[in-house]
Amino acid sequence: MTDTRHSDRADPDDRAVLNCWHAIGFLDSLGPTGMRTRLLGVDLTVRRHRNGAIAVRGAGRTDPLPVAERHGCLWTSLGTPPAAPVSIPDADEPDRRLVCCGSVEVHASGLRVVENFLDLAHFPFVHTGILGAEPETEVSRYHTEIRRDVDEVWATDCRFHQPQAAHSSHTGVEAQYIYRVASPFVTLLYKSCPNDPVRPDVIALFIQPTAPDRCRAHPVMFLIDDSSPQAELIQFQQRIFLQDRIILENQRPRLLPLDPRAEIPTRADSLSVAYRRWLKEKQVRYGAVHTAASLRALP
C-alpha cells in the first residue's frame, strides 16, 4: 500500500504558505494535556504545561514550532511567520462578543473554502431565506483591489438584499459588506450590524489546511450583540457553513484552479479573480493547481 502522507506536505519552496500563521484549533476546546492535529501534511502534537504554557511540535522536527494565542484560537507556523497572527482591531473593542463557532472538517482545498466565503452570488441559491432569496439574485458592482502596502485582497462597496442578515435580524435588509483576505487561508468579512448603525460585525474564517484537498475551518465572530444566547449565535453560523460544505465537497476539482483559462468568471466574480491572481503572484501551491494541463490530470 502506498503511503501518501509525505506527499501531502507543503513544498519547501511554498514560502507564502509555510511562513503564514495558521489557526489549528480553539483555545476553549484544548484539553488539559493538549491534542493532536495536522497542518500542511505534518502531524502536530500540542501540549499544555503545568504553568499553562502551550508547546507545539511537528513530526520529524527537533525544535518547537512558534505559538500564538489570539482571537480565541491557537496559532502556529511551519516556517518563519510575522510577529503575530492577523490583526483585527475591531476584536479589541470591549463591547464586542467573541463567538467561536466550532471547527468543521471539509473535504476540499482550504483555498476553495476561502473563495466560497468571498462569493456573494451563491447566497440566494445556497442560503435561501437567510442570506439571499430568489428573484433578487443580481450582484451589484463592487470594488476589488490588491492592497500592495499590506499585501492583502479587499473588496468594498458590496451590498446584497438578505432576508436574515444576522441572528438578531428580524426583517430583510440590504446588507453592506467589506471583504478582506489577510493571508491565503485567512479571510474576514465586515458586515453591517443590525444593532449598530456605524460599526460592522466582523466574521472571520481561519482555515487549517491539513492536506492539499482537505482542511478544517474555524469560523469566529466578533459581534455587537449583548442579548442573543451564545448557543443560538453559534447555531446560526454553523447552519450557514454546513450549507456551504455540501457545495464545497461536490466541487471538482477539489483543488483551486489558478490558470485563468480553467474557469470562466462573470462580473460578480471579480473578487475571486483578484484572489486567484494574488495567489498565483505569491506562487501558492498548496491546495492549488496552476496549469490547465495539470487540471486535466486531476480526478
TrEMBL record:
Residues 107-281 form the Vanillate O-demethylase oxygenase-like C-terminal catalytic domain. GO terms for molecular function: dioxygenase activity. Keywords: Dioxygenase, Oxidoreductase. InterPro entries: Cholesterol_7-desaturase, VanA_C_cat. It comes from the Bacteria. The keyword Oxidoreductase applies. This is Aromatic ring-hydroxylating dioxygenase subunit alpha.
